[in-house]
Amino acid sequence: MSNEQILSSDGVPLEVSLKKAERRNKIRAVLLVAPLFLFVLIIYVFPIGDMLFRSVDDRMITKMLPKTFKAMEQWDGKELPEEPVYGALYEDLSYLKKTKTYGKIIARLNYEKSGFSSLIKKTVRKISKFEEGNYKEQFIKVHKRWGQLDYLIALKNTAPKWSYAKYLKGLDLKFDQDRNIIQVPEDRRIHKILWIRTLNVAFWVTVFCFCLAYPISHLLATLPMKYSNLLMICVLLPFWTSLLVRTSSWMVLLQQQGPINDLIVWIGFAADDNRPELMYNVIGTFVAMTQILLPFMVLPLYSVMKTISPSLMRAGKSLGGTPFTTFLKIYFPLTIPGIGAGCLLVFILSIGYYITPALVGGASGSLISNIIAYHMKSSLDWAFASALGTMLLVGVLTIYWIYNKLVGIDNIKLG
Amino acid sequence: MSLPNYTPLNYKIWHYTYLTICGLVFFFLIAPLFVILPLSFNAEQYIHFSAKMLALDPEGFSLRWYKDMIWGTKNPWGLATKNSLIIAFFATIGSTVLGTVAALGLSSRHMPYKAAFMALLISPMIVPLIISGTAIFFFMAKVGLAATHTGIVLAHIILGTPFVVITVTATLSGFDHSVTRAAASLGSNPVNTFMKVTLPLITPGVISGALFAFVTSFDEVIVVLFLAGLENTTIPIQMWVGLREQLSPTILAVATCLIIMSTLILVSAELLRRRSERIRGINR
Predict the structure, then answer these.
(1) Could you please report the per-residue DSSP string of chain B?
(2) Do B219 and A223 touch (CB under 8 A)?
(3) Which residue of B has its CA nearest to A219?
(4) Residue spans per domain, chain B
(5) Cβ separation of B222 and A409 shorter than 8 Å?
(6) Chain B partners within 8 Å of A255 (Cβ)
(7) Which of A131, A291, B17, B145 shows the greatest Cβ crowding within 10 Å of its Cβ?
(8) Domain A191-411 sits in which CATH superfamily?
């Protein structure tokens, strides 16, 4: 036994030389991934972080009334604050009037408590006539609401730089003036309905897709190649066709004068002058989304079924199993990985669907994505859109994580 | 699929029921696309079948909506097509290059934290587009790239790379690494080995990834909807606007053109897939 080390050709111990080579390979692999990683980090991950930040950012009002909030720190909120608070408020509001920027705080304060809009407008109009000293009295003289405790408490409640109020709003909750979380009035509870509907639609679309995809994937996997390739086109052509084209074909089909309604009238299920409304409601969303997402269920199921040897079924039958029991005990369990992959993929995709519900869903068929788009494009409440987006993102990432654990992300098959 | 003669009657019934169900599902998948084709040749301004069309009267059909698509007054389709092609072209190149290079690294057995990197790089495909669109819009507005082609191209590169990464890693998984070692032992440097040996072998995977990236960019509505100004309008945006206002036969003419395009893409993708399987030695 010699303790001599094996040396490579240039005299370095082989172990060291090997480690060096391994490290070089590692660095090379990392360098190859680095450009895309950095690109994704800057243009994708960072913006999503920024979106999270926006959803809780409430610094605008904190910055605009700095002195007031500073003076209010000492105030316990049990009775009306003392003179220094009103003095600070006077300074802040005069500054805002001078720079003509008070418009921004009105919306924010009015959201906290209605009635602030007229209060601030009236105060700002008269603030130049204020005399020095005894501001508390002068404020209350301008508008009696400055002497009401709940308005001042509402003002104080806007002081923190960060707020999760937008998240509460997304769940139809809000703060009352004592900072308790309460439900919003019954007629304003629209978001909870949308969340439930989104989950409902995603769930049922997944179920429908599964029921429709399972038999045809089985057929595609068991037919001889030359037939199955032909039938595969029926799956792949919609897969490659523009989403808008497919949605517009459903709009043509489902409209009141469309072929499906013609058929219903012809069969006699409905009178010609009383054609059922198939579009602009949740039926349209269900039908169109199922057809559009079906390929995403078929492809993973097919790729798993393709690997199941037919001899297993024959073995089951030769051991006395009926076709039904062999299917249930042998074939079905083997397809479970494909079922998991397909269902999770379809569920993830449908939970964030936007285009199809927006076009064929109408008001009763719109989903959470539609309300995000509405706040982005129309109401311009970007913080709220960000909060809803973040809530949706958390949901999707949770399912993605499960998917990654169960299926493995590198097992996604395309086409 | 014919059944042997001795099959019991109830199995026969079950078998044909099964085939009928499958037939109906295939019909459900493919038929909606074919409704558009005849209606785009409608001679009248409706998007349902006129009596003349159902009677196959030649007068019921015309090319007027195709003419309108190309020469119509204040027609947005020309600009939209140009923009769509430019954006999709650059986005495809960007995604393909970045995605292929990253896939090479991810397929290396020396890559640390492979699964985590893979999950991150594929996430743009999983995260709902409405969220990606919102986040990217804030970012582009901040850096001054909103309503520019550059901003849209960068966003589309992000959305396209997952497809390239997936297809190229799939191709590389069946890749025989001894050929690159052979090239190295014959004195080739890594870049040369990649260009002369690896790339020709993985080309089918790269091109099919590029096709995915192209289609992703060419079809994408939501991110463009947030980012684009009037000058950056694309075909999907014009279709979206048209569909929201009123479903017109001109849109169906455009849709028909898009269906023809996707058929061509499907055929090339299928040919590439088969070629790739042949090269990788997968016989079925």
Answers:
(1) -PPPTT--HHHHHHHHHHHHHHHHHHHHHHHHHHHHHHHTTBSSS-SS--HHHHTT-GGGB-SHHHHHHHH-TT--HHHHHHHHHHHHHHHHHHHHHHHHHHHHHHHSTT-TTHHHHHHHHHHHHHS-HHHHHHHHHHHHHHHT-TTSHHHHHHHHHHHHHHHHHHHHHHHHHT--THHHHHHHHTT--HHHHIIIIIHHHHHHHHHHHHHHHHHHHHH--HHHHHH--GGG--HHHHHHHHHHH---HHHHHHHHHHHHHHHHHHHHHHHHHHHHHHHTT---
(2) no
(3) B22
(4) 9-66, 78-245
(5) no
(6) 47-48, 247
(7) A291
(8) MetI-like (1.10.3720.10)
- A404:B137 CB<8 A: no
Instruction: State whether B270 and A236 contact (CB < 8 Å).
Output: yes
Measured from the Cβ of residue B94, the count of other Cβ atoms closer than 10 Å reads 21
Q: What is the mean pLDDT of residues A102-124?
A: 81
Beta bridge partners of A181: A175
pLDDT at A309: 87
Per-residue confidence (pLDDT) for residue A4, from 0 to 100:
66
Query: Between A and B, how many residue pairs show a Cβ–Cβ distance under 8 A?
Result: 276
Tokens of A72: 């209010």
Q: What is the rounded distance in angstroms from the CA atom of residue A277 to the CA atom of residue A270? A: 11
The closest alpha carbon to B82, from B140, B144, B149, B155, belongs to B149
Q: B158 contacts in A (CB within 8 Å)?
A: 39-40, 43-44
pLDDT number for residue B246: 76
Q: What is the pLDDT of residue A409?
A: 62
Query: Is B210's pLDDT higher than 50?
Result: yes
> So where are chain A's domains?
59-159, 191-411
Averaged confidence pLDDT in chain A: 85
pLDDT digits (tens, 9 = 90+) for A10-59: 778 888 888 988 898 899 899 999 999 999 999 999 999 999 998 888 88
Evaluate whether the domain defined by B78-245 bears CATH number 2.30.29.30: no
Positive or negative, the CA dihedral A150, A77, A183, A108 is positive
The residue behind tokens 């006699």 is A268
Spatial distance between the Cα atoms of A275 and A256, rounded to a whole number of angstroms: 6
Q: Per-residue pLDDT tens for A277-298?
A: 888 888 888 999 999 999 999 9
For residue A37, count other CB atoms closer than 10 A to its CB: 18
Nearest to B266 among A29, A43, A240 (CB): A240
Dist. CA B172–CA B44, nearest whole Å: 53
B67: tokens are 């003419």
Q: Which residues of B touch A45 (CB under 8 A)?
A: 120
Per the CB < 8 A criterion, the answer to whether B134 and A51 are in contact is yes
Rounded to whole angstroms, the Cα distance separating A192 from B65 reads 44
Secondary structure class of A370 (helix, strand, coil): helix
CB-nearest to B262 from A222, A231, A242 is: A242
Q: How far is B250 from chain A, CA to nearest CA, in Å?
A: 12
Contact A47, B139 (CB under 8 A): yes
Q: Do B130 and A372 touch (CB under 8 A)?
A: yes
Q: How confident is the model at residue B83 (pLDDT cuts 50, 70, 90)?
A: very high
Residue to test with chain B: of A240, A297, A306, A369, most B Cβ within 10 A: A240
How far is A65 from chain B, CA to nearest CA, in Å?
Answer: 25
Residue B283's pLDDT band (boundaries 50, 70, 90)? very low
Q: What are phi and psi of B240, to 5 degrees?
A: -60, -50
Q: Which residues of B238-256 are buried (b: 16+ CB within 10 A; e: fewer)?
A: bbbebbeeebbbbbbbbbb
ipTM over 0.90: no
- CA distances B240 to A251, A355, A358, B245, B258, Å, are 12, 8, 10, 9, 14
- A33 to B244: CB separation less than 8 angstroms, yes or no: no
